Amino acid sequence: MNCFGLRAGYASWRARTVHRVLLIFLLLSGAAYGQPQQVALTLDDAILQTLQHNPRLRVFDVRMRGLKGLRESADLAPAYELGAEVENFAGRGEMQGLNASEQTVALSSVIELGGKRSARVALVDARADLLEAERKAKALDLLGEVTQRFVATLAAQERLNLAEDALALARTTLQAFGQRARAGAAPDAEVLRAEAALAQTQITLSHIRRVFDTEKTQLASLWGATEADFEELQGDLFQFPPADDFESLYARAKGSAALAVFASEARLKEAELRLSQARANNDISWSLGVRRMEGTGDTGLVAGVSMPLFSGRRSRGDIRAAQAERDQVAFRREAALLDLHAQLFEAFQNRQQNIDAATALHEEVIPTLDRALRETREAYERGRYSYLDLTAAQQELLDARRRVIDAAASALQYGALIEQLTAEPLSAGKLAR
After folding, report:
1. Which of 28, 244, 286, 377 is 20 to 30 Å from the Cα of 132, by its Cα?
2. Per-residue pLDDT band at 425 (split at 50, 70, 90)
3. Which of the residue ranges 117-121, 215-219, 330-334 has the most confident prediction, judged by mean pLDDT?
4. pTM score above 0.85
5. Which is nearest to 153 in space by CA: 431, 430, 412?
6. Structural domain boundaries enclosing 72
């Protein structure tokens, strides 16, 4: 069996990746969940359902609504206050009762100086920009998680196919041993050992089937389903798209959404610094009212202006703290860039190593072992080889097919990680598709 000639479509389901998915994410409406039962699930289906229904993304809508409320409050001018004051009453002598009292009704407010209102609004806008950057970064992380779980489930599906092939091979072997035993060319012990091997293969198949069901459930949990609403996955585990060289991938990774968060955070810290600087400017408090003097029956206007002293000196600490917070972002971005380089290089190297291993197993090792098994079976039927020779040849072929599945799955896992780190397909040329 050619294990590379499985379900087609890997090139298409990987080519339509991050950029198109992010566009879909921004255009998705909040449609109610409820997908019909489907036989085969594609990677695109898994991505769309996850972006629609995963609560880790939907929480950003709630946070954005909160910021819109904060922006409305930040854009308000200082409130007006209406106050009333009574003086010179309830005393003794001429001050007894309200005969000599003075009543004042005044309107007061604050004149903000230094652009505080615009600074407050700019700060909330910067928080919204940071939240949007975090949403895109979280979408990329979630996309990577969906892809990796999809690959893990697809690998489990191929292991299940291999286990079913192993079961068929064990039954064929048992039949061959039975025929030789009935002909007196082999001892009955070989038949018993073949029966035991068949039973163990059935146990292994049952275990792998449960693993596959578990992987499907974990994949479906990404879009809020408690059980898999699909029977199998559609995708080819054994085709690897070409990738750009490491320098090109790293250059694209520098503009990824994960690093864009630092740029948005830097703008946020700059907005906080401007607000601290604006608060260093003194505000002017004013009041204007009318005063009535009961003793004479006269009325007059009352006006007042006040300004705090030394507010600039009191704000120096806040300004320095805001400057320090802003400067920290650049260093944290530099550290994140170093980590990104290390992660990307490791993923790039491991992907290529696993591709080389899978290719060598497919093109050299498996065909050789397949031919060796045929020759061993023919020799066994002629009585030239023993039971151990035949079972060893079968096990070597099955082990090689397991290793090629593991290598292919690892290559795709590392490829998904590279796309997650760069926020683009492995090859920039795919963007034109």
Report:
1. 244
2. confident
3. 215-219
4. no
5. 412
6. 10-77+112-280+315-432
CATH code of the domain covering residue 412: 1.20.1600.10
Q: Round to whole Å and give the CA distance between 71 and 217.
A: 42
CA angle 74, 75, 77 (to 5 degrees): 100
* Cβ atoms of 113 and 27 closer than 8 Å: no
The Cα 320–Cα 338 span in angstroms is 28
Query: Rounded distance, CA 237 to CA 3, Å?
Result: 9
**Contact 425/21 with Cβ under 8 angstroms?**
no
Task: Say which residues have a Cβ less than 8 Å from residue 131's Cβ, sequence separation at least 6.
Answer: 60, 63, 64, 67
Q: Is 334 exposed, middle or buried (0-12, 13-18, 19+ CB in 10 A)?
A: exposed
Q: Is residue 299 part of a domain?
A: no
Torsion of CA 176, 181, 182, 184, to 10 degrees: 130
Confirm whether 52 is domain-assigned.
yes
In a domain, 164, yes or no: yes
How many domains in the chain? 1
Q: Which residue from 408, 54, 43, 53 is spatially nearest to 233, judged by alpha carbons?
A: 43
- The 8-class DSSP code of residue 160 comes to H
The answer to whether residue 408 is domain-embedded is: yes
**Mean per-residue pLDDT, 24-44:** 56
Polymer length in residues for the chain? 433
| CA–CA separation, 45 and 259 (whole Å) | 28
Which DSSP string do the residues of 337-370 spell out, in sequence order? Answer: HHHHHHHHHHHHHHHHHHHHHHHHIIIIIHHHHH
Question: By C-alpha distance, which of 273, 274, 278, 260 is closest to 421?
Answer: 260
